[in-house]
Design goal:
The protein is of the alpha/beta class. It has two domains: 116 residues, Aspartate Aminotransferase, domain 1; 241 residues, Aspartate Aminotransferase, domain 2, CATH 3.40.640.10. Helix content is 38%, strand content 19%. It contains twelve helices and 17 strands. The strands form four sheets. A seven-stranded mixed sheet has the order 4-12-11-10-7-5-6, sandwiched between helices. It starts with 15 loop residues before the first strand and ends with a helix.
């Protein structure tokens, strides 16, 4: 008999009842060091006082009115994002998946309004993940994502990751946009080198193609800049944001230049819940902390410390780990052992990690993780690896 919750997840046998910063607590009091942060969502950890205060204050005043009316918290957050980024305008969603849907619509509508309705094709890359909607799975294109869900939304072209010549050849008079993650998350923590991002921007400029960046997982301070593309010194035309922007409250956004968004006029898109007062109150509190240069400097310092410790871990367990990769506090352990076994061994040592493709274990801790917690995390991962060494 099918369970009351649709069985689309293989859930770990863990039930948490409370969170404190980088820690999750079981009903029996066991404390787990959380290096997953809800899959890069809890950017400021669990129950951050500023977020609790913002949510509580807004909840006592007003929860929801819909986008038929002005929403001051939404306006304030949009203004903050525009001021801090390349963007001229923002549309708020509830998730990264919804952000993907709008980004695709926005790019195609742009070319329609430019009198080039044939420009509908969007180029994406092997290993990508853009959510689980019809557009998202069609964009990713992998059999794992698409099998059994046809017919797929047409208009996507999938290229090998890192094949520059294939990319240049793929851009034609029907290309609307190139969609890419600056750091692939689900794909196994694969950063796109800065020179490649610059090359993408140059190619788009030369051909008029729009550049869409998916920063749902790598954005909001995760790599040590507010957004990962800043390391390359380039800007996109459209950017998808979610996860960390809400600090645990469902919130997403699409950021765009005035030109790229020019086709999105009244009635062309909407959302009942997107940008509601509760979400934007929390998002505003997150933004005020994460966008602070001093906070980002600390992220970079802690990222260097964590990476150094992880390099030592890899060296100590060469039969379990192969390499460290990633950027900032978005790191991956490329495994020789089965990554699911590494995650499971971590459960036994009360440390939480997240599996990814390419036999990688993701480490996506709260950006507020302390030096002592970093040391404790690596110690627990060391003990988890020792379990696998002993079992080999």
């Amino acid at each position: 008999m099918i369970p009351s919750i649709l069985p689309t997840y293989n859930r770990a046998p863990l039930t948490f009842v409370k969170g404190e910063g980088s820690w999750l607590i079981e009903a029996d009091g066991r404390r787990y060091l959380d290096l997953g942060a809800g899959i890069a969502v809890n950017a400021l950890g669990h129950a951050h006082p500023a977020l609790v205060a913002a949510l509580t204050e807004q909840a006592q005043a007003l929860w929801h009115v819909s986008n038929l009316y002005q929403i001051p918290a939404q306006q304030a957050l949009a203004d903050a994002l525009v001021e801090a980024t390349f963007a001229d305008t923002v549309f708020f969603t509830n998730s990264g998946t919804e952000s993907c849907e709008l980004a695709v619509k926005m790019a195609r509508k742009f070319w329609y309004e430019q009198g080039q309705p044939e420009r509908v094709e969007i180029i994406t890359f092997e290993g990508s993940f853009h959510g689980r909607s019809s557009a998202g799975i069609a964009a990713a294109g992998s059999e794992k994502m698409t099998k059994g869900f046809g017919p797929l939304l047409p208009g996507f072209r999938h290229l090998p990751f890192g094949d520059h010549e294939a990319l240049k050849a793929a851009v034609t008079e029907t290309t609307a946009a190139i969609l890419v993650e600056p750091v692939q998350g689900e794909g196994g923590i694969r950063p796109l080198p800065d020179v490649c991002l610059k090359g993408l921007r140059d190619l788009c400029d030369a051909t008029g193609t729009l550049l869409i960046l998916d920063e749902v997982q790598c954005g909001m301070g995760r790599t040590g800049k507010l957004f990962a593309h800043e390391w390359a010194g380039i800007t996109p035309d459209i950017m998808m944001v979610a996860k960390g922007i809400g600090g645990g409250f469902p919130l997403g956004a699409v950021l765009a230049t005035e030109r790229a968004a020019s086709g999105m006029t009244a009635g062309t898109h909407g959302s009942t819940y997107g940008g509601n007062p509760l979400a934007c109150a929390v998002g505003g509190a997150v933004m005020s902390i994460v966008a602070d240069p001093a906070f980002l400097a600390e992220v970079n310092r802690k990222a260097a410390l964590l990476r150094q410790r992880l390099e030592g871990l890899v060296a100590a367990h060469p039969d379990v780990f192969e390499a460290v990769r990633g950027s900032g506090l978005m790191l991956g352990l490329k495994c020789r052992a089965v990554n699911a076994d590494v995650v499971k061994a971590g459960y036994a040592e009360a440390v939480l990690t997240v599996p990814a493709a390419d036999n990688v274990v993701r480490l996506l801790p709260a950006l507020t993780i302390t030096d002592d917690e970093i040391a404790e995390a690596v110690a627990r991962l060391d003990r988890a690896a020792a379990r696998l060494d002993a079992a080999a």
